[in-house]
Amino acid sequence: MTTASTTQTSHFEAAATGGGSGLKKNYLSFPEIAAQSIGTIAPSGTPGLVISVVFATAGNGTWLSYVFATIALLIVAFQINVFATRVATPGALYVYAGRGLGSFAGVISGWALLIGYVFTAAAVVNGTVYTALGVFHAVGLTASDQALTFGIAIVAAIVAWWLAYRDIRLSTRTTLAIELATIVLILTVLVVYFLHRGNVVDNAQIHLEGVDFEKLRLGLVLAFFSFVGFESAAVLGAEAKDPHRLIPRSVIVSVIGVGLLFIVSAYGLTAGFRGVEPPLSTAEAPLTTLANTFGGGAIGFLVSIGVALSFFACILGSINAAARVLYTLANHGLFHGSAGSTHISNSTPHIAVTLVALIALGLALAQTISGWALLDGYGILGSIATYGFLVSYFLVSLGAPFYLRRIGELRWYHVLSSAIAIVLLGVVLLGTVYPVPAWPYNMLPYVFLALLGLGVAYFLFLRVVAPDRLVAVEADLLGKDTVDSRA
Q: Are 40 and 232 in contact (CB under 8 A)?
């Protein structure tokens, strides 16, 4: 029988939450929960854009980089699921890290996770604009790029905001429809390419020609970035049906399913671009180019539309995830209390959703106004986001065995898997700072630390001057659950 500490909902979920009616309980099914993670990953965007970047480093080892990244993230997913099977909360990794390591580590994880989701939303605003412009260029509209850049960004952010503001089920179903349709198109391009070629064997990739350990290591770092956000189903802990079962399943299915798509796409694109100009490392729309090699231009055009919509779905998923983390922080007294309220009829964290959408759009437009190219902006914002995810993943992985020991369920294999996850995350983190990247990427760790420091400093300030405001933090992050007296 499961112990009492593993069956209670968090203090935060048991208590009244802000204004409105609270988040909708027992509302989302498994496909809708999985759609949250899949949408935040934006799996169609990786074969549509990111694999080219990984190939520039890993070459014929690109597919293997994604194999290693899938295995690494699967091990991290097991650490997350230590908590997801026992704790249901919109705070997700924020609360998880606190349960394992205490409130200070939890707050670090929470602010890091919020930074990760907000900057991901901002980055994929740029990604949406870049890929949508490619669609407009394909139909001959090339004279109004500046106006289109601002117009697409604003429209995408407003539509994503409205969906997130209106209803979480509407959001996740929209995301699921976009991603499934685009993935089907991508797989169609790959299957038809290999049928046209008449052979699926690519000896250069199978024998890893020209690939060494350093290329694979750097490829793993870049491939890892394709998965960030895979855990975001966990923010639906208050809204999911049977969250202790369906959220862990969603996290695992997201990693495995998306990982297989990435591996197959990396292998197919690498094989398909042999002798093709421009090369894969510089191709702006690799799937469209691949489709053109067998006369599938119409399918390629549809894929380009799907990839742009996939980036839009990532805006939506990131806003939903960030808003729920911010909602939890606000209810814990670590942000203005208005962000901890829910809409009276929609039961969404509408204030938090609005704030996140405005900040994400503002960051993206500020970069464009400052003269940064869209892909440069995407890379800069995405890199800052990645530091947030790495810190949060690290703290949760470190905290998992401590949490299990506290509730009397620790086994040797929990310690081993935690240690492996920490080492793998350390390799990825090291790869982002060494060799030291060129400017401005060499400054991004400091930008992230400055942002993180603001949130953590406020927590420390409250701990000294207003400790009574942190009652909910201590109760929720330390697992001092409140039991309903009617139970």
A: yes
- Identify whether 315 is part of a domain: yes
Nearest-angstrom CA–CA distance, 106 and 91: 10
Element (H, E) at 463: helix 444-465
On whether residue 435 sits in a domain, the answer given is: yes
159 exposure class (CB count in 10 Å sphere: 0-12, 13-18, 19+): middle
Residue 420's pLDDT band, with cuts at 50, 70 and 90, is: very high
Within a domain: 482: no
Q: pTM higher than 0.85 for the full model? A: yes
Q: Read off the CATH number of the domain in which 41 is found.
A: 1.20.1740.10
Q: Which amino acid is at 451?
A: L
CB 247 within 8 A of CB 172: no
Bond from prior residue into 43 cis (ω within 30 degrees of 0): no
CA of residue 171 relative to chain centroid, distance: 16
Number of domains the chain is built from: 1
- Through-space distance between the first and last CA atoms of the chain, rounded to whole angstroms: 17
What pLDDT does 23 receive?
95
Name the band, by pLDDT with cuts 50, 70 and 90, for residue 20.
low
Closest to 318 in 3D by CA, of 447, 222, 231, 232: 232
Give the Cα separation of 7 and 80 in Å (integer): 17
Those residues with Cβ within 8 angstroms of residue 432's Cβ, 6 or more apart along the chain or in another chain: 221, 383, 386, 387, 390, 445
